[in-house]
Design goal:
193 residues; alpha+beta; SMI1/KNR4-like; 7-stranded antiparallel β-sheet; 9 helices
Length: 193
């Protein structure tokens, strides 16, 4: 894939890379550091970008091994999403999305998970009326049924929580799953499948 991109870039068929035109404005310094780390400085004549297959660590890769994964998204798309939603994304979620951009299936030896692509997150949150019922949440996944998984913007650092899709307005029903995407996957991986 990178060879095709490099060739199209040389022919002038692609816009400048992120270090040539700059990353989208990211106000959160920690989030900006994450996205900058996803790109390596380009050597003369090469294309900047993550090294294919080098984003997810082995634990994360083993947890999603049974899932059908998407094709991956760009760090810029994730940065723009995070900026629009005033959201700090966990680094392992960013790594997963850069490689997979969502997916669905069984996690580890446990339960089922549907992770939405970048393009699905905002429309799905609008359809669920999250802004009306739970404005501090950004849903990014479900169990394929009546439970959703969201980032809770109430906290300064990322928090992943499990929330019933019906009754999401009542914070008493929220279950703190952890600070990372891997925490969520480990929790689901321990459920009965």
């Amino acid at each position: 894939m990178w060879a095709v991109i490099k060739q199209k870039k040389a022919l002038g068929e692609l816009p400048p890379g992120p270090f040539e035109s700059g990353l989208p404005e990211i106000k959160d310094p920690q989030l900006r550091t994450i996205f900058q780390s996803l790109y390596r400085a380009p050597a003369h004549g090469s294309v900047a970008g993550p090294s294919p297959g080098q984003m997810m660590d082995e634990r994360l890769r083993s947890l999603v091994a049974r899932m059908k994964l998407g094709a991956g998204t760009s760090p810029t798309s994730l940065a723009e999403l995070a900026s629009r939603l005033s959201l700090q994304l966990p680094a392992d979620y960013v790594a997963f999305m850069v490689e997979a951009d969502g997916g669905e299936g069984f996690v580890g030896e446990g339960g089922y998970l549907q992770v939405w692509s970048v393009e699905e997150i905002e429309p799905n949150n609008e359809a669920l009326k999250v802004g009306e019922f739970a404005p501090l949440l950004v849903f990014f996944a479900t169990d394929g049924g009546d439970e959703g998984y969201a980032f809770d913007r109430k906290f300064a650092s990322p928090r992943v929580i499990q929330v019933p899709l019906i009754g999401m307005a009542d914070r008493r029903h929220y279950v703190n799953v952890g600070a990372t995407f891997t925490d969520l996957l480990e929790n689901i991986g321990q459920q009965s499948g």
